Recover the amino acids of this structure.
């Protein structure tokens, strides 16, 4: 060892390389999240949906998961917060014209070359491939780059011009713990608001039910009264007829 002209890497050099490898691995995982359904791991295909945490799914996969929670091995871990279709938003993402062409191409990508992304920002034209932050609005489902929203800060969606609130903005595939914590709070707040809405709707229905019942009871009483009156009239007519016959 050491006499063959080679060199033995120092421990400090090996330790320095490890964080670089981990960073590259995290980057590759993030990129993959922009190309594949978080649940089925299949390529993203329209219709694509997003959840309150900014994860992307094929709508069909979510439907399969809701019908059978054991359909996907890690389903309970990936989207345990998805209880119904109200917990996801159907997204309107602009197709990348170059994507279909790339699928037909037989060219082999180099090691450091990224595949063409299926979607692009409708404002800036940037590919949604993990290199630039993207967002969608929970209010309308439109997808665009974070840069586009910042450049056109009008309070209106940069795609459909619908008004939105700041808590409607959902960063896609964020890895920031603070951002994810805020998104979870907003997600829980939406669910609570939906529960409250359903409760109020149920209470409103229950308030109207007694009135409707009373109305039916009143109608029934009227019918009984009419029947008794009709019976009494018939009896009186029969009595009068009998008296005439006797006379």
């Amino acid at each position: 060892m050491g006499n063959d002209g080679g060199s033995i890497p120092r421990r400090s050099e090996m330790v320095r390389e490890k964080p670089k490898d981990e960073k590259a691995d995290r980057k590759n995982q993030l990129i993959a999240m922009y190309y594949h359904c978080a649940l089925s791991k299949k390529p993203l295909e329209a219709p694509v949906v997003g959840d309150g945490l900014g994860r992307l799914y094929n709508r069909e996969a979510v439907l399969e998961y809701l019908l059978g929670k054991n359909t996907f091995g890690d389903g309970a871990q990936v989207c345990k917060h998805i209880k119904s279709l109200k917990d996801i938003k159907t997204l309107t993402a602009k197709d990348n014209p170059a994507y279909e062409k790339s699928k037909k191409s037989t060219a082999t990508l180099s090691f450091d070359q990224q595949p063409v992304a299926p979607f692009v920002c409708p404002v800036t034209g940037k590919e949604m491939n993990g290199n630039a932050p993207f967002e969608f609005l929970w209010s309308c489902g439109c997808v665009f780059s974070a840069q586009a929203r910042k450049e056109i800060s009008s309070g209106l969606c940069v795609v459909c011009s619908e008004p939105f609130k700041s808590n409607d903005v959902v960063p896609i595939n964020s890895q920031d713990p603070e951002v994810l914590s805020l998104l979870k709070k907003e997600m829980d707040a939406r669910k609570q608001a939906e529960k409250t809405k359903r409760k109020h709707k149920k209470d409103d229905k229950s308030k109207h039910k007694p009135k409707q019942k009373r109305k039916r009871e009143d109608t029934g009483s009227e019918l009984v009264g009419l029947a008794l009156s009709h019976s009494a009239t018939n009896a009186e007519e029969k009595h009068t007829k009998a008296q005439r016959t006797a006379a």
About this structure: Helices lie at 11-33, 59-67, 75-78, 97-104, 146-151, 177-246. The mean pLDDT is 82. The chain is about 50% helix and 10% strand. The longest strand covers residues 48-51.
